[in-house]
């Protein structure tokens, strides 16, 4: 029997959620401030929140796209710098952003031909004129103005209501993401969602990291380790085929630390199609319970390190292959100026029965938790 939830029930259920996971372990109450960052075309305000953990590190997130705009972390000398790509003002984010720091959904990545089967019928999505659906459609979650709420500690909750039929996806969906910054420099995301009808859901954080803190520099010298023995291979149009291919002997082998730039220009078929790294890695171990380690990124020059821990089955590695624009502070952003490590389910899962499922039904609660853990090495 289908469970029908009202709009009020969806949002009130999510707003009542307690802080979970790493967010509750904050040993102090550093603080959150807010300011007006811009206005939507309809006049709705866009709010920017600054989360400070009391150590000098801080995180900024705005309601538009639930996007992280800044993340300031120390290096081995104790100097602080912004380690994510971004833009200077709201209008730039609204008109020029390459999903810098956004919460992508309903479905991160591609769904083949913009359609998939669900309970005996075919769901047809809005592709915006493209062959495949990408990142939830032309007006996905990254282009919506979320509702923000300051929580205890260095934390904020963002909520969004997505209508039944939004971008073609069935079911009215209420989604909540809690951003928190702990005293030990962990940036945490906790996502929960409810639906009124069966649907598919695969949200992710689309942050571009550059641990050097030098805006516009390339990430070729960053050392990356992925806790993965396989990846989801794709065809000539970058649509995954359903094959999980071994990383052994390929440019995608990051089982031991390797500079990102070592094989980024490889002539292997997967690298030529992607124009660099744009692949989903299958993370070892069971997913859906407690977060487990998925990746480690480090920058030898600054000493900054970042570990990604997640409950998700995969991590999309993307090296900003097509980025070519003026970024924050006038910095020139070129291909490979940042690296995304996006915890998520696999692309095109609704059309691949062999992949972990992304189906969400009424009465079920979607839960996902990821932590970006920062430290410094000598």
Automatic annotation (TrEMBL):
Enzymatic reactions: alpha-D-glucose = beta-D-glucose
Gene Ontology MF, one: carbohydrate binding
Alphabetical GO biological process terms: galactose catabolic process via UDP-galactose, Leloir pathway; glucose metabolic process
Pathway: Carbohydrate metabolism; hexose metabolism
Annotated InterPro entries: Aldose_1-epimerase, Aldose_1/G6P_1-epimerase, Gal_mutarotase_sf_dom, Galactose_mutarotase-like, GH-type_carb-bd
GO cellular component: cytoplasm
Keyword entries, A-Z: Carbohydrate metabolism, Isomerase
Highest rank taxon of the organism: Bacteria
Enzyme Commission designation: 5.1.3.3
NCBIfam families, alphabetized: PRK11055.1 (NF008277)
Recorded family membership: Belongs to the aldose epimerase family.
Name listed for the protein in its UniProt record: Aldose 1-epimerase
Source organism (scientific name): Niveispirillum cyanobacteriorum
